[in-house]
Amino acid sequence: MQDTFVYLVKKLPTLELTVRLTTFLYPVVKNLCLNLLRFPTPP
Questions:
Q1: No. of H helices and E strands in the chain?
Q2: pLDDT number for residue 38
Q3: Could you tell me the CA-to-CA distances from 36 to 10, 13, 29, 39 in Å, in that order?
């Protein structure tokens, strides 16, 4: 969740939202989750 917020804040200055925010966020959240599964962080 926090990673998604950080990503969105970084992209905000150049973001041209021509679709719904949820349509934009779904692939972002999906890819961030897949990256976490693919490359787990050590404890």
A1: 2, 0
A2: 93
A3: 19, 25, 11, 5
